[in-house]
Structure formats: C-alpha cells, structure tokens
Amino acid sequence: xxxxxxxxxxxxxxxxxxxxxxxxxxxxxxxxxxxxxxxxxxxxxxxxxxxxxxxxxxxxxxxxxxxxxxxxxxxxxxxxxxxxxxxxxxxxxxxxxxxxxxxxxxxxxxxxxxxxxxxxxxxxxxxxxxxxxxxxxxxxxxxxxxxxxxxxxxxxxxxxxxxxxxxxxxxxxxxxxxxxxxxxxxxxxxxxxxxxxxxxxxxxxxxxxxxxxxxxxxxxxxxxxxxxxxxxxxxxxxxxxxxxxxxxxxxxxxxxxxxxxxxxxxxxxxxxxxxxxxxxxxxxxxxxxxx
Length: 291
Description:
Radius of gyration: 19 Å
CATH class of the largest domain: Alpha Beta
Helix content: 40-55%
Structural class: alpha/beta
C-alpha cells in the first residue's frame, strides 16, 4: 500500500510527552496539524500541554507569538490516555520515547497493529538503529527517522533518516512534512549516530576529556569553539541543554556499535549522571541552571 503523501496528512500522533515529545507536538500544532499527545506515564501528557501553554504565553509576552496563534495552536492539541486513542486514524505518528531499543520495538509493533498501512511512522531516535526499529512493525518501508533538535520550536534542522527498508515515497513524504513544519531537512543513511549525534557527541566528549585533564575551565573550552570556530554555543553548554543522561546514553550506544575509544564516555560524564546533575533540566550540569 502506498505511503500517505505530505499534503494528505492532517492528524499527527506524538508518542512520548517528555522534553522532545511536547516540543514536537507544539511545532506540529503551530504548523496547522491536529496533534494527539500520548505518554505511557499517567499525567505526563496533561502536564506537557500545560508546559506548551506556558511556552506559548511566554512567546506572546515577548512578541514572538500572536494571541491568535496561541489560541489556534492550543485548540489543535489534545492529550490522550492510550496509544490506541492517540494513533488510530493518524496519518503520521512520531515516536519520542526514551532511547531504549526494547521500548521502541514494542511501540512500533503496537503501531503496526493500530495504524493504517499507509500511515508514515517516524522515530525521533538520535542514535539507535532505525532499520532494527522498523523490522518490529508491519510495512517497514513506511518507517523513517525524524530526528528533531532541542528546542524543537527554535531549531531549524530536521534529520531525516533512511533505514534499509525505507521507501523513496516515505522519504519524500518526510521531507514534505519537514518543510510544512518550517524545518530545513537533511537526508542521511541509517548508521550509528547518523550525522548530527556522531559529530556532536564526539565534540562534546572531547571537551569533557579536556576538562578532566585540566586543560581549561568550562567557560574557556566553550569560548574556544564559539569565538574560534563560530559555533553559536560551546559543546559543554550544548551537552547541558541536551541532557547529560541523554548524552551518556548516546555515547554508550555509539561506543558499542563503533568500538574504539572516541565514543567511550569519560568518567566526569558518568559521575555527573550518577549524582543527578543532568544539565539544565535538573538545575546543574557543567553549568549552574535555574530549574
């Protein structure tokens, strides 16, 4: 069965209402899609809607969002209590659950049972094998990677990942959706870390090793890349924004897949995660943050 075309997509389900999930839901709703948000933990999806409301309110105060856009965006959003209720009838489903292969395989198996055979199934995975995820569902040719960046409503890039079974039609639909979301997409082959995580994690881990070795302090390491290479934000601050637990998980996955020492997580990263210093979301990481 043919994959739905981008112009035919009206209803979007987002599975996972954490930092990335609720950000993706906001972007989709602002772009005119009806969005149904679901999370397996009770209450999380409802709380995510309140976060979106607060974010839009802040946008209105700053003159970035009109009052009318805020109300129209909120009218297109709803929280659902089950995956069935969220995904049934959706032309596009975007998965944004934790980076654990067994969870994603289970979810995509369920989506294969719930969704229309023509629905496009997207995964926001930043490091796991899209091809393996796709094998857990029927019609793996309609599974693509839709890797968003944090915060989704500000970051222009969308990394579209082609798995070993992904069809040309699915990629074309994904590119069309990306442009409707106001994103500037790139297409990459399914490989560990894709393009962005592989490059970003390598830079972030090396910055952490430099800190461990006492080569420079946090601020100066970041300033080296900001002023020396034109990066808008240094690798340690970026790591704090991504979440040090997320960065550790991705690094461990890349180390397993690619071997060698370049993606082996440094002890300073393991220690911070163990102490709950996860970056901005916890109030402290390499920098102090207001929660």
